[in-house]
Structures are given as structure tokens and as C-alpha cells.
Design a protein that fits this description.
The chain has 192 residues and is of the alpha/beta class. The chain has 5 helices and 6 strands. The protein is 29% helix and 17% strand.
Length: 192
């Protein structure tokens, strides 16, 4: 579990984070909790080179520092087997464009991580609103065993996309949890 409570700047924090992970050869999981600088691409790069499990809990959030590069390490295979991302709880108070911007940021980070880990992925916990199901549908998931999707069923999700994704991964799954509430302004999706 890692997350400083005082702000020290992203670069200094990333250097400290790398130095603290270095002497831990048996570390298997990094969990971000209350990260004052946000979860930056540089922090993710450090984790991808060190551990097979990444957890980002409700008190941490993706960093807005700079654009996400399409050619970053996320787009190449990585060794992550478990990814757990529970969204920042305050986002429920956002509306309109601010909420859409938050979902778009989450989705951009998630698609890059997931595209790099699809061959090794065993367990995924993702927010329903920003899970990049269209990109995930295009990839094989041969080792997926546990899938959990939580949140609100997005109005933008096509009626066929979610069932198609589930049909693709269901044969491998040992555990499936879908907690997706319909949005107030839209009818109940057929999968729910």
C-alpha cells in the first residue's frame, strides 16, 4: 500500500517510489492509496517492471499531468496478472462534461494497461462506466479467471457489446460479478 499524504511533486515522488521498491525482490502487489500526486504514467511504468498485481483504490486517482502517450510501455506486453481499479468515490458528484472527462481519462489509462496485459490477465476489477470493452473484445483473454465490473451501465454502451464480451470470456471464468445499475434517464439494459 503506497501513498504519501503530503505533496512533494511528481518527479521527486516517483524517484522515492522507485528507490523504495528496489530492495523488495519478492514484492507481488502494489496498491495505490491516497496518492497526493495522483497515479502518474511514470509510477505505472515502475510497477509494470516490478510486480504482477496492481491495485488502485477509491482514494487514489489517475493523474492529469500531461497527455498519455500512445507509444508508452502500456501498449507492449507486460506481466500484470491482476488489475483492480475502484474509482474515486467523489466522481459521483460530477455531472455533464466533468463526469465525461473523468470517464474518458480512466478509459484511456485502462485501455493501455489492459492491451498490454491481456495475455497474462487472470483477475480484473473495473468500473463499468470506463471499462474499455470495445478494445477488450478485440483481444484474446486466455487466462482470465475472475472478472468484476461495478458501477452504472453507461448509456453509450451498445446493447450487443457487453454480451459479446461476456460470451467471449465466460468459458474461462471461475468468478463473474457484475454490479451495474442502470442510469436513471435510460431504460434498463437487456443484459441486466
Amino acid at each position: 500500500c503506497y501513498g504519501p499524504t503530503t505533496y512533494m511533486g511528481a518527479t521527486k515522488f516517483e524517484e522515492m517510489f522507485r528507490a523504495r521498491l528496489e530492495p523488495l525482490p519478492n514484492l507481488i502487489c502494489v496498491r495505490f492509496h491516497r496518492t497526493s500526486v495522483g497515479v502518474t504514467p511514470a509510477l505505472i511504468d515502475i510497477v509494470l517492471k516490478k510486480v504482477p498485481r496492481l491495485e488502485i483504490d477509491w482514494s487514489a486517482r489517475w493523474s492529469y499531468n500531461g497527455p498519455i502517450q500512445a507509444d508508452r510501455i502500456y501498449t507492449v506486453p507486460n506481466t500484470l496478472t491482476h488489475l483492480s481499479y475502484e474509482p474515486f468515490t467523489w466522481r459521483d458528484s460530477l455531472t455533464g462534461q466533468a463526469l465525461e472527462a473523468e470517464f474518458a481519462l480512466e478509459s484511456r489509462y485502462l485501455v493501455q494497461l489492459l492491451c498490454g496485459m491481456h495475455a497474462n490477465a487472470q483477475s480484473l476489477l473495473l468500473p463499468m462506466e470506463s471499462a474499455p470493452l470495445a478494445a477488450m473484445l478485440e483481444l484474446p483473454w486466455p487466462n482470465i479467471r475472475d472478472l468484476s465490473l461495478r458501477g452504472q451501465y453507461p448509456a453509450s454502451l451498445s446493447e450487443r457489446l457487453f454480451p459479446e464480451f461476456l460470451i467471449r470470456v465466460l468459458p474461462q471464468l471461475q468468478s463473474l460479478c457484475v454490479r451495474a445499475a442502470p442510469q436513471n434517464t435510460h431504460p434498463r439494459p437487456p443484459i441486466l
